[in-house]
Write a structure and sequence with these properties.
Blueprint (H helix, E strand, L loop, with lengths): L1 E5 L6 E9 L3 H9 L10 E6 L6 E10 L10 E8 L1 H12 L4 E3 L4 H8 L5 H12 L3 H11 L2 H25 L7 H22 L4 H7 L1 E6 L6 H9 L17 E7 L2 E7 L9 H16 L2 E7 L8 H5 L4 E6 L10 H4 L3 E3 L8 H15 L11 H19 L6 H19 L5 H8 L7
Parallel strand pairs: 1-6, 7-9, 7-10, 10-11, 11-12
Antiparallel strand pairs: 1-2, 2-5, 3-4, 4-5, 8-9
Helix pairs in contact: 4-5, 6-7, 6-15, 7-14, 14-15
Length: 443
């Protein structure tokens, strides 16, 4: 079947691109233009007409990509027309008259590229990340994955395991052959090296996922400390309702920010206090959960009443900045207990020292995102497969007896399979849908 879709963004634009891929691509171009397909990969100006009446739809550029030297690996064409809605609709209506053509599903062009061996799964996922990148660091990470270092590394590790597996299986096939101790030692040594390399990749503080999904900051503290005002100030807009009534915020309010190129998700949470209101109690529970899972906590307290006992003390122990608000009302010096925590004294009312707080947040971000290694895990799917690979390799190393070689072979086989699942070297039909459905139509 031949597929087609609008590949440029929807809505009115100067130029729109309709992409076609499949065996009928050349016939579609011939029927629309009344001429043969242009020379490969050469932009050619053509009149694009109604198939039945030869009425002009638009005049645009046709680019012809004969397979297998195309993005999808199939015959493929791009039609560049003016980006008016009526032009695009008329063009797509004409293509649909060919009964062997249908509208593409989300990500189907890239799915074809994967299935035809043009790209691997990691590159396909990095393309989706590049399209959805909102900050510079997200774009840079997607490009790093596209370059293929991660794919090369995972394929190298997989090839090493395949060699070990073939060695073990040969022993199973020829049990009468005596296996020298040196060979067993090499088997253990090589599999241990692969295991240690995977453990090193896993020990990344989840930097890749943090960049892709956003750095999570939770604003937490007692009621009426100024949490919602702080969220509004950092967002430069009215995100949360601000009121002097304690307990105004009852649910978690989130907003996405671009902080000097770093993707940030800031959450305003319900004020922590003893409450009999069931709805507020649920909001407080959500607040504590959000704080627990945050990459950074901004613990906001009132300068007139700095009490860091109980839950506040626990929250400040790790990944936290103490934000002391309402400094304009402070008459006495701060208590010595405050000085042992990373803190900043601000006044949201007078907009003072907000720049100091932002500077502290940025420093925290930079420290979190430091990664010298080019091998990044950007999705939970990758991490799960690597974890499974580690488990099977550990099981393999426990089976040192020659009688256990058949069981050891199965452990190696499973470890190899999980590495293959990351780059798509095995049957991965069950995960293709979830990956490519995240793409926009036309990609």
């Amino acid at each position: 079947m031949t597929i087609y879709a609008l590949s440029s963004g929807p809505g009115v634009s100067g130029v729109a691109i309709v992409r076609i891929s499949g065996p009928e691509s050349s016939n579609v171009i011939k029927s629309l233009t009344g001429k043969e397909v242009p020379k490969p990969r050469m932009a050619t100006l053509r009149k694009i007409n109604n198939i039945n009446t030869s009425e002009l739809i638009d005049e645009g550029i046709i680019i012809w990509f004969p397979g297998p030297e195309s993005y999808t690996g199939e015959d493929m064409a791009e039609i560049h027309v003016h980006g008016g809605k009526a032009v695009i609709l008329a063009l797509q209506n004409e293509i649909s008259k060919n009964k062997k053509c249908r509208l593409a599903e989300p990500g189907e062009f890239t799915k074809l590229a994967f299935q035809n061996g043009k790209i691997n799964l990691l590159k396909a996922e990095s393309l989706a990340d590049l399209i959805s990148a909102e900050t510079e660091i997200q774009r840079m990470q997607a490009v790093r994955i596209m370059k293929g270092k991660s794919s090369i590394k995972f394929n190298e590790l997989r090839e090493k395991l395949l060699k070990l597996l073939s060695f073990v299986e040969a022993k199973i096939d020829f049990p009468e052959e005596e296996l020298p101790n040196e060979n067993i030692k090499k088997l253990t040594k090589d599999s241990t090296e692969v295991l240690n390399e995977i453990k090193k990749i896993l020990d990344d503080q989840k930097v890749g996922e943090m960049i892709r999904e956003g750095f999570k900051i939770a604003i937490i503290g007692p009621t009426n400390a100024g949490k919602s005002s702080l969220l509004n100030n950092l967002s430069n807009r009215e995100v949360a309702i601000v009121s002097e009534i304690a307990g105004t915020t009852r649910d978690v309010i989130e907003t996405h920010l671009n902080l000097d190129g770093y993707p940030v998700i800031i959450s305003d949470t319900a004020g922590i206090r003893n409450s009999k209101d069931e709805i507020e109690k649920k909001g407080i529970k959500l607040s504590l959960n959000k704080a627990e899972n945050a990459d950074l906590r901004l613990v906001v307290v009132d300068a007139k009443n700095v009490d860091l006992s109980g839950f506040l003390n626990d929250l400040l122990k790790k990944n936290a900045i103490l934000v002391i608000n309402k400094s304009d009302l402070l008459k006495d010096k701060l208590d010595d207990q405050v000085k042992k925590f990373e803190h900043v004294l601000i006044s949201l009312k007078e907009n003072s020292n907000i720049d100091q707080l932002i500077s502290k947040i940025k420093n925290n971000l930079k420290n979190k995102f430091v990664s010298a290694d080019d091998i990044l895990i950007t999705r939970e799917r990758h991490r799960e497969h690597l974890d499974q690979c580690v488990d099977h390799l550990n099981n393999f190393l426990k089976k040192k007896d020659k009688k256990d070689f058949d069981k050891a072979a199965e452990d190696l086989r499973l470890a190899t399979r999980h590495l293959g699942m990351i780059v798509g070297k095995v049957d991965v039909e069950e995960i293709l849908g979830s990956i490519f459905n995240d793409f926009c139509i036309g990609k």
